[in-house]
Here is the input.
Amino acid sequence: MKKYAWTILLAVCVWALSGCRMPEAPEDAHEPRIFGATYMTRNNPYFDVLHEAIEEVVEGNGDILISRDPSQDQEKQNGQIMEMIEEGIEVLFLNPVDWEKVKPALEACREAGVVIINIDTVVKDTDYVVSIVETDNYQAGVLCAEDMMSRVDSARIVVIDNPIQTSIANRVQGFMDTIGDNPNYQVIDTEIGAGEIEVSAEVMANFLEKVLDEGIEFDVVLGGNDPSALGALAALQQYRMEDGVLIYGIDGSPDFKSMLELGYVTATSSQSPKTIGTVAAETAYQYLAGGEVEPYISIEPYLVTRENLDEYEINEWQ
Here is the structure.
């Protein structure tokens, strides 16, 4: 017991002689910074993977990432961004619901000095953002069109679009520009699917009712993303009209690749939410450190078909 007491006394004396100074913190230690992230919806596993990639980089740097889910409501997203500004975010990773109506939030971020990294789908007012990180969405649509044209000499096409989301709009544009004025390939109907499987299934079912009533013929469906295409597939299966229909998605999701393996769908232009998230987070840190960053970073897509599916992990995102 005495020995233990003398040990404590000795430690106190040494501390006193050293000027009562506590050990200094490592040079690279800092108060954790707060980063914010908002995605148009979390009702899509793609955004979970994207978020996890950002989170890994942010937390690996000893900082904090908070996030919000506006559930496809731009007014709600604007309000949630204001809340995150009040919570002290320095950087916002922004995936907007509506590329135009997000502007009030962009203005609020600028006023508060919050850095915006725009991810996955581009805002209209790009002068408010430091950098844009996204897949080459136009090329993703091109790849789908080229594959379709290699498979069939003619087609009557249904498109599941979402014009307020620039990523989907650009994919559709790439597809449309590729088929061009070729009369053998005609878009006979365009539906708005909100980029979600349930909405796309509903609008496709409504279209199929018209098909039955009016005798409309079609043999290709282009989904603006994988959930749109899978929603269309669900409706086609419900009506038992899937035979002979080529179905294209864009994402490369595990769900779509599973359907691809079973032969229910045709191809998907794959993108990598892991890469987008990692690049976006690293770009933010580069900017915060005073480095120059690219204002636009484009990541190339690649086509996944049943023929080359064995080159990819079916149950994982790329």
